[in-house]
Amino acid sequence: MSRRSISDVFLFLQILFFAAVVPILLRLKLWRVEALLEPRIQATTDRDRVEQIAEYVEIAIREGRPLVHQGCLTRGVTRYYFFRRDGLNVSLCFGVGRVDGEFVGHCWLVKNGVPFLEARDPRPLYTEMYRISSAGGRGVKASQNIGLEQSGS
User: Fold this and answer.
1) Range of the domain at 13
2) What's the predicted TM-score (pTM) here?
3) Are 83 and 90 in contact (CB under 8 A)?
4) Residue 147 falls within a domain, yes or no?
5) Does residue 139 have a pLDDT over 60?
6) N or C: which end of the chain has fewer CB within 10 A?
7) 36 or 45, higher pLDDT
8) 39: exposed, middle or buried (C-beta count within 10 Å: 0-12, 13-18, 19+)?
9) Bridge-partner residues for 110, per DSSP?
10) Sheet strands side by side (includes 91-99)
């Protein structure tokens, strides 16, 4: 096995493990989650690496059952964690909205002011309540826990 393929396997295993612990991580206070997600040292990333991380996250979510929870929370938090460590300037947004008459939560990434890697723009359906970014969070009080239900997206 070449050095490149070993690093690919290692990256995938890191993503799988991280995705599995997202529900535990999200039991912490928001300020603590933010501190854990933000990298201390930033690298630079390239388009191929972004696509690789996005693909591995999807595989981990799809194939990691029952260890990995399905949905936008696992996807968004895991992508954010690995993208930020690779130097990609994205934000992680948490929002709530009414879908089919029920209040549901959703989380998504934003890059350059627009949703990133979303099938459709979540902003018309969901009101942003909190954002984690290198510039710091905003929205709900940092002492509150994240209590959003996954909407299945």
Assistant:
1) 3-139
2) 0.79
3) yes
4) no
5) no
6) N
7) 36
8) middle
9) 91, 115
10) 114-116, 102-111, 91-99, 127-132, 138-139
